[in-house]
Amino acid sequence: MLKPNMNYGELKDSYLFFNISQKINKYLEDRPAAKLYRMGIGDVSLPLCDEVIKALHSAVDDQADPERFHGYMPECGAPFLRRAIADYYAKRDVLLSDDEVFVSSGASDELGDILDLFDRASTALVIEPAYPAYVDANIMAGRKIYHLPSGEENGFLPEPDGKVCADLIYICSPNNPTGAVFNRAKLKKWVDYANRNASVIIFDAAYEAFIEDNSLPHSIFEINGAKTCAIEICSLSKTAGFTGTRLGYTVIPKDLERNGMYLNDMWVRNRTTKTNGVSYIIQKGGAAVFTEEGQKQIKANIAFYKENAKILMHTLDKLGIKYYGGKNAPYVWMKCPYGMKSWEFFDCLLNSVQIIGTPGSGFESCGEGYFRFSSFGTRDDTVEAARRMMNFLKQ
Ligand code: PLP
Fold first, then answer.
1. What is the pLDDT of residues 317-348, one digit of tens each?
2. What is the value of pTM for the model shown?
3. Whose CA is nearest to atom 12 of ligand 1?
4. For ligand 1, atom 5: residue with the closest CA
5. Ligand 1 centre distance from Cα of residue 106 (Å)
6. Suppose 179 and one of 105, 129, 331, 359 were both cysteines; which one would form an S-S bond, judging by CB atoms 3.0 to 4.6 Å apart?
7. 2 pLDDT exceeds 90?
8. How far apart are CA 177 and CA 56, in angstroms?
9. Is 204 in the pocket of ligand 1 (CB under 6 A)?
10. Best mutation site among 173, 178, 234, 238 for ligand 1, i.e. most ligand atoms within 8 A of its Cβ?
11. Are 191 and 219 in contact (CB under 8 A)?
């Protein structure tokens, strides 16, 4: 009899977003006309910028013209987009060859698929609180997971402590949900640790474009030694509003070798076997993000979200509530007031001022007592939510 992948039985039920929507539905059942302020969303609210839209339209027209029509695209990405992404890295002095850049349909897809490169007996270390996909994708693959909790004592940026020696190390910087960002010195410690132990770092740079402090690294490849121990996974979802359009990229250096196998070569083999490339139209839209005008326009959108974050941070400052993130990340990670637990604070905000956020305990137990606000909402909702929170919590 066929035996399914029994590791799926090990997955914990994902209560976080299910519970949030249950609570919202219940609230609206009793008060159908209530207006809710959704400050927990991880999706963007601004549309794609003009430059991207123009490129998408023009690519659609190409597909109607026998001279310009494109069929299957190269599995690892269109040369024009691989070049544009490599040029983007070069601006920060990270020199990549085009074939170290792989175009993808988004970071989530890659975070799951990349695990094909590693033995199932390998172990994974996840710095927590964390984006839930890291743990779940490894449970599905049957891997042993080491959970490394972080907290206020290290600003949610833990260092390797030598107690565990995992094969895969997940680092998300800027972090979802805490908004914390590794500086060069701290990241270097992880790079050295990974090189010493022959581990591989999976560096999730989905929020790199939100970094405004020039001293902070956007890419792990800004750190010496990273090319022999890291894979970087990135996305245009939050950078350029591609959550529904779907586009990302993954960098695997040619020098990354384990046990005589080169991971870049392996990934080429994987992609050419398991995908037929990302749509020509979408890749054309993606390339527009990296033009001078495209960069200007996406930066304006990011500045809009940053302003939302500032409004929230200003309110928390006035209330004297401690928080992390917000400055170099789209998330504000606040400490629940009056020692409340995460879900207690969720209920309190929903029932009293109709604000919805994300309970920190949903990102593993060390998130208990924290609450995540996102800056991806509309300006009107953000301003009103900040006003309501101010009036409510100052009492
Ligand atoms: N990585 C992190 C840390 C995220 O927060 C998200 C989405 O919220 C993703 C990856 C997934 O991004 P994508 O939309 O490219 O799949």
1. 999 999 999 999 999 999 999 999 999 999 99
2. 0.96
3. 107
4. 176
5. 8
6. 331
7. yes
8. 32
9. yes
10. 238
11. no
